[in-house]
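Sanity check. The docking grid for adenosine-5'-diphosphate depends on where the pocket ends up, so I'm generating a full predicted complex first rather than guessing from homology. Inputs follow.
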Amino acid sequence: MNRLWVRLSLMITGILFLVFFWQFGAILIDAGLRPGRSESGTSGAPGGPPDELPTSEILRRLLTYLALSFVVGVVGGALVGRVVSAPVSAMVRAARRIGAGDLATRVTMRGSREIRELAATINGMAAELERADAARRNLLADVSHELRTPLAVLEGNLQAALDRVYPLDDAGIANLYQQVRHLILLVNDLRELALAESRQLPLDRKPLDLSALAGETVQALEPLAIEQGIRLSVAAEPLPPIEADTDRLRQVLFNLLSNALRYTPPGGEVVVAVAGETGGVRIDVRDTGEGLAPEDLAAIFDRFYRVDRSRSRETGGSGLGLAIVKGIVESHGGTVEAQSGGRGHGSTFTVRLPA
Ligand code: ADP
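Predicted complex below; grid placement will be based on this.
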């Protein structure tokens, strides 16, 4: 038997018997040698051999001590075992339920400090598993929702073309091509996001001149800004290089800048500022565009979050751009946040990276 209470009972029985024996056995043996003195107040004949208790009496008393120790030991062992092992058993049961998929299970915090710490750890682990499970379910639901729309358009158009109901002209083919491109963009973004969020994005860290990279990205997007009638500029101070993955940070700048251009009306302005600050560098992408309401600011980095769902999808965004930005920046040990004066008052996205 390996049960705690059995082991505790045996231990207590043994200890009690030893104590009893130590305390009373010596007296008993002593009394066994001089019985007359202890019981009647008279000793045996002075100078003569002492009278002895019968061996059976000594055995009887020893067995009584043993029985008493055993009863006290078993009762004590069971009680102590229950007090000590009850919280542990409860945790074992809870851990089994969590393992079987019941992620809402939590352990009651009781017992010694160590046991309570263990219970808190198990509860934290269950909460994290529950959160990850909910995120996985949401992601699956979101991904299937996002894939369904372009696939439905493709299917409908191709079916109509096959049935000769709606022959495909160049404009029709161009529309289908856009849907396919959107699907490819979405699948690529999903892969990037999955890697970034699982911290498995391979980072090729090399010394990087962030100000130069900001200048290059702005230059690449200049034609788009001119086409949309938006003033695009960069204000970057010379900085010591930081250890970072150039391609990934180019993607961060590209995502933030193309969002700024997408959500800023003609006549607006977009500015990228790069500056050093204590412990690292800071990039601000400021625009005079649509702006964001406080409730949107909190959710904007979630996957597939769009302030205006239909409009954003039409403009070609996957709804994953900012989630990817966050994943890449956090993989570099940095942070990203959004600020806005409210709807219609422009937005600023700030990335901070350690030096
Ligand atoms: P999308 O592909 O839809 O642009 P993002 O993850 O890049 O996806 O952005 C999520 C949402 O955040 C966008 O749909 C848009 O509503 C909002 N958003 C992003 N950048 C800006 C910006 N600079 N100004 C206003 N709204 C923005």
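Relevant for the grid: The pocket of adenosine-5'-diphosphate is lined by residues 259-260, 263, 287, 289-290, 292, 300, 305-308, 312, 317-323, 347 (CB under 6 Å).
Also worth noting: Residues 35-45 have pLDDT under 50 and may be disordered.
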